[in-house]
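Posting for a labmate who doesn't have an account.
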Amino acid sequence: MRHMNKKKIILSFFVAAFFLADVLAFGNNSWAAEDAEDIQDKIDKYENKKEAVEKQLQNAQGNLQKTQAQIGTTQSLIQKTETEISRKEKELEEMEKRMELNKNLLKGYLQELYWNDQEPLTELLLKENDLNDISENVDQMMGIKEKILAILDEINSSKEESEKAKKDLSEKKEDHEKLLSVQKGQQYEIKTDISKAQSSLSELNAKINKLRGELSSLLGSSVSFKNIIDAAGFAAKVTGVRKDYLLGVLVVESNLGRYTGGCNFKESRMSGARAEIFKSICKELDYNYQKQKVSCPPSGYKGTGGAMGVAQFMPDTWKGYKSSIASVTGHNPPDPWSLTDGVVAMALKLSKVSGVTAHKESAEAKAYCVYLAGGNWASYCDSKGVNYGEKVLYWADNYEKLMD
């Protein structure tokens, strides 16, 4: 009887132990789910902030363009006003010369009249036989005097008008210069706002990427920085694409390999030919397509998820690069979730844009926009919105900030 009781006690102990283990396992899974949910909430909040900052940046860039156009118009008006002032100054100089010439003529005629007035009438009669000639001579000189005086009045009046016009133009120029000063002040403030917005975006992206890395750790495996730097070095060597540039792309695409997707096949909403290609890739590599992690559907626009590995290639894109990847890495079939295969695939695609292997930054910026959008790449490299090409170049120089 005691022996049977002892067996029951031992059996009860094991049942309790197994039950406790199940409870703890459930608790751990529950806590992990809650942590993942909290992290996702934070990511969503930062994404909302990021969207708001991007709108502010877009508005500021639009205002900057308007202000720069206004500055250009004001500078043109100042230049035009200066030209008009210069023309008026030349007109005034010509008027001064004309006045001086006419004054000298008037002076000569007045002197002649004066000497004629000083001569006695008897002498004039001796010199001039005909009184009519004397009268005509005096009348002619008086008429010339009146004409000269009229010319002087006209010149003086024109001079006053020109001086007034010059004064008005000078005042107008002063107003334009004040306006230009205000506009340049506005330009400086807008540029400061743009700089702050760009800094905020960089900080928000870093926070989002860090949180995605934490989320990825909860949802699946991550890779070490040493491994990813080694992979980037190998891809750079075999393709000629700059290593730091590849690391910049990897920051934006998968936070240096820490976030390679948090959704399964069903959650990604892949459909049609793409879904069939994804299944064939998984089958070839002996992966369960229903459990393999891929990117989630985008929240900011209509579309599906399904991007694979650190390079975030879609299944159909990966299929097009399979033979090229295999020839470089020797892995046949290549694995999109393999770090080496993924980074090599990324480098091969980026190298298709002319100038990338020559390490030209303008080509590198364009290449990443092409990487994102193919033929519609220009909309992703637009200076009015978020320039993803410049974003990658920034992280190419600053990826070490995420290696804490």
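Reply:
Got it, the structure tokens are right above this. The CA atoms of residues 241 and 357 lie 5 Å apart.
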